[in-house]
Amino acid sequence: MTCDTLREQLVDYVVAGEPADDQYAVLRAHLYHCVQCQQDLNRLRQVELALRAWPLEEVTPSLQLRLLATGNRLQQPMDLYPLPWAIWLPALTVLIAIGLALFLTPVPLSIALQPAASPLEWNPRALSLDHDALQAVWVGVSVALAGIGVTMALSQTEMPDRSDMDGLRSRATHAIRRIWHVAGHSR
Amino acid sequence: MPRPSRSGPGVSDPMADLVARAQVGDSDALTQLILQTEQRVYNLAYRILENRQEAEDMAQEIYLKVWRALPSFRGEAKFTTWLHAIATHASLNRLRKLKREPVVLADTEENLERLLARDTEGIGSELEPGEKAYIWQQVRRLPVKYALVLTLFYQQQLSYEEITQVLDLPLGTVKAQLNRARLALARSLKETRTP
């Protein structure tokens, strides 16, 4: 066994509190005659002692007041909490894009809303070429907007973390429950 | 009504009762949760951001995030592990924004000994290598991922398994980073100066 191969075990040995079990018998035998590893052992002991005594900074009274005030905000309606803009701005952009694609295409409303007797009866040639071209432009603009939204989300330095997503999920659940509650009362 | 927290299989959480009360809006339980965790949250933010004012602002933001996400906490991990995960990732996000560069937590090879060499800038000359304060100061010179695992293990007193949950890293990576940091700190105590 060389010093290099025993080094990892030496760290584990010190962290474990230098136990006398057989697991470290080879290491102890090596330590007995290796001055270099004995020095490493002493330094690792110093490091371990220092890190175990590493003190925590005190929380100042003013910070404590600020932190306690965050608890009071929980009593307010959830809707007052602003979502991070990394979530709502791209979502809004995508929604606008979908809205544009759905409502601004130049298909005449009467055609769009008219239910076809059979899907086979709908004839896209009924639309003029100009309409098709404009439709393509609108869809292109909408896709571009959606792309901008997604890019903004991805290029954020501060991405939403797990707690933001948890918050979003709990808010959505809260909203669905409220709708369910209102719907239940109205029946 | 939010689902009361319950510990997942094999997870015994001494704060489960307080968390369950906080989830249904008990303000006393919230206060207790803050008082019992504030020092660890603040210190974790401080270790990552290395600035008291930033750490104070961060601690406040962390608790707002925690309260916002509390209704969805289901007790699959201990509350403190979940809190540490939120605190760590929020602080790292802030650090990325401040430094305008990525902070990599995954395992990479660095020459830690060179970073900790006594002749490089930033080490207090008034401290001797044998002093504990010297070692604490040396930790601040390590890349953030090493300082982070050290603070999670020693200051925050999390187990290896809890650290893997907080950092979302494999157990082997966490242990390797801890051991590499310990060895580098030990070697920095050598009396000989590194050229």
Helices and strands of chain A, in order, run as: HHHHHHHH
Helix-strand category of chain A: mainly alpha
Q: Report the biggest beta sheet of chain B as strand number plus sense, adding barrel if it closes.
A: none
- Give the termini distance of chain B in whole angstroms: 64 Å
Report the sheet-strand fraction of chain B. under 5%
Strand content of chain A: under 5%
The outline of chain A comes out as elongated
Poorly predicted runs of chain A are: none
Helicity of chain B, as a percent range: 55-70%
- From the structure provided, what is the oligomeric state, counting identical versus distinct chains? heterodimer
Characteristic key phrases:
heterodimer; A: 187 residues; mainly alpha; B: 195 residues; disordered N terminus
Q: Can you tell me about this structure?
A:
The complex is a heterodimer of chains A (187) and B (195). Chain A is mainly alpha-helical and 187 residues long. Chain A has helices at 3-15, 25-33, 35-52, 61-73, 85-103, 109-113, 129-154, 162-186. In chain A, 68% of the residues lie in helices and 0% in strands. The radius of gyration of chain A is 33 Å and the shape is elongated. The N and C termini of chain A lie far apart (80 Å). Chain B is an all-alpha fold. Chain B folds into two domains: 16-99, Rna Polymerase Sigma Factor, Chain: A (Orthogonal Bundle); 112-187, Winged helix-like DNA-binding domain superfamily/Winged helix DNA-binding domain (Arc Repressor Mutant, subunit A, Orthogonal Bundle). Chain B has nine helices and no strands. Chain B starts with 15 loop residues before the first helix and ends in an 8-residue tail after the last helix.
